[in-house]
């Protein structure tokens, strides 16, 4: 399982700077160092109180009725820019409707305004708030770089998006149910692909759980609605921070002020702002950075059709053997490192 980020992002100097400069609330599911490095990672919130702290026996319920329900949803499956985020949200089953639906009015994140989503996320991260005190959540952020590298593996080794999504779901479920020993009994998941096939796979891995995979689960089950909000806010904040970092980098490398102001929109291929940003910010050889999914058709077409340079690699017999660079002295190793780098090219820093 990927390394879990247990610390709030505001403990990071990068996050503090980003939050202060933009007024953006950065949830603890954002690890700025990993995000801006193009790494995938997981985050697990502090454990909520045990369900029995809500005194179910006073309502005539037996102790065995104390258990947690958990919902899973994702955000950012289709964009060419930015990460995909899976989120799990869990809480005592007896609070699912009263707390999430009636008191805080969670719903499918797509029907909530950005302001409402952000406010719910802020409350979820605020100690003393009922959401913080009674609920737990987790995210798995899959970076654009890792998504693409998996999908672009040659031949039968390709790691498609559905397989990556399934592994993300399994990772956060195991992290909550097995590693953190949360008493989850019911799991509700918004489907990817065929819900029957997806549910059967998960039931084999987690035979003790009652798993329901359904279309539009984020509108049917409050815990899935809450998961969709956590995933969407994490994805949106990650996208904004990536854009800010990329703009600074482009401005420094190219001395072009336009980079600092041009929006890349939602990151979806159907968004004209996103396509325009990709077209205007494409390096003719290297394309883009960790923020782009090179495996998407939009990026592939631009590189293949609109790229400004064709790279002719040396014939195989002319290539130097890597073992020739593995010399024993530190100076020789350093020298060989630079020779290899220059041989295969690098981004122009001038």
TrEMBL record:
EC number, UniProt record: 3.1.26.4
GO molecular function: metal ion binding; RNA binding; RNA-DNA hybrid ribonuclease activity
Record GO biological process: DNA replication, removal of RNA primer; mismatch repair
Binding site for a divalent metal cation: 73-74, 190
The keyword Lipid biosynthesis appears for this protein: no
PROSITE patterns for the chain: RNASE_H_2
Cofactor(s) required, per the database record: Mn(2+); Mg(2+)
Family matches, as InterPro entries: RNase_H2_suA, RNase_HII/HIII, RNase_HII/HIII_dom, RNase_HII_hlx-loop-hlx_cap_dom, RNaseH-like_sf, RNaseH_sf
Cofactor binding, note field: Manganese or magnesium. Binds 1 divalent metal ion per monomer in the absence of substrate. May bind a second metal ion after substrate binding.
Signal sequence extent: none
Pfam families: RNase_HII (PF01351)
Keyword Hydrolase: yes
Keywords carried by this UniProt record: Endonuclease, Hydrolase, Metal-binding, Nuclease
Organism domain of life: Eukaryota
Known catalytic reactions: Endonucleolytic cleavage to 5'-phosphomonoester
Every RNase H type-2 domain range: 67-308
One GO CC term, this protein: ribonuclease H2 complex
Family: Belongs to the RNase HII family. Eukaryotic subfamily.
Protein name as it appears in the record: Ribonuclease
Organism of derivation: Aspergillus homomorphus (strain CBS 101889)
């Amino acid at each position: 399982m990927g390394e879990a980020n247990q610390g709030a992002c505001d403990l990071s100097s990068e996050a503090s700077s980003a939050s202060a400069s933009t007024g953006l609330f950065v949830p603890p599911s954002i690890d700025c160092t990993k995000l801006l490095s193009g790494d995938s990672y997981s985050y697990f919130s502090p454990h909520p109180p045990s369900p029995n702290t809500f005194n179910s026996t006073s309502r005539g319920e037996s102790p065995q009725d104390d258990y947690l329900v958990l919902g899973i949803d994702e955000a950012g499956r289709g964009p060419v820019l930015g990460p995909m985020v899976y989120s799990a949200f869990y809480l005592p089953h007896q609070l699912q409707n009263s707390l999430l639906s009636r008191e805080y009015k969670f719903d499918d994140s797509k029907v909530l305004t950005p302001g409402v989503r952000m406010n719910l996320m802020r409350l979820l991260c605020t100690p003393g708030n009922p959401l913080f005190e009674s609920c737990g959540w987790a995210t798995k952020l899959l970076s654009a770089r890792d998504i693409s590298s998996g999908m672009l593996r040659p031949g039968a080794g390709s790691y498609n998006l559905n397989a990556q999504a399934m592994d993300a779901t399994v990772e956060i479920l195991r992290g909550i149910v097995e590693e953190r020993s949360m008493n989850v009994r019911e799991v509700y998941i918004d489907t990817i692909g065929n819900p029957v096939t997806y549910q059967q796979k998960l039931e084999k891995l987690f035979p003790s759980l009652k798993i329901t995979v359904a279309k539009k689960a984020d509108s049917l089950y409050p815990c899935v609605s809450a998961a969709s909000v956590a995933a969407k806010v994490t994805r949106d904040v990650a996208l904004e921070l990536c854009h800010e970092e990329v703009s600074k980098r482009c401005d420094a490398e190219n001395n072009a002020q336009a980079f600092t102001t041009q929006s890349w929109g939602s990151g979806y291929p159907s968004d004209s702002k996103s396509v325009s940003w990709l077209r205007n910010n494409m390096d003719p050889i290297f394309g883009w950075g960790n923020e782009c999914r090179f495996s998407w058709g939009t990026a592939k077409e631009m590189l293949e059709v609109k790229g400004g340079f064709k790279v002719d690699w040396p014939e195989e017999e002319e290539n130097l053997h890597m073992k020739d660079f593995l010399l024993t002295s530190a100076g020789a190793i350093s020298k060989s490192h630079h020779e290899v780098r220059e041989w295969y090219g690098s981004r122009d820093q001038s």
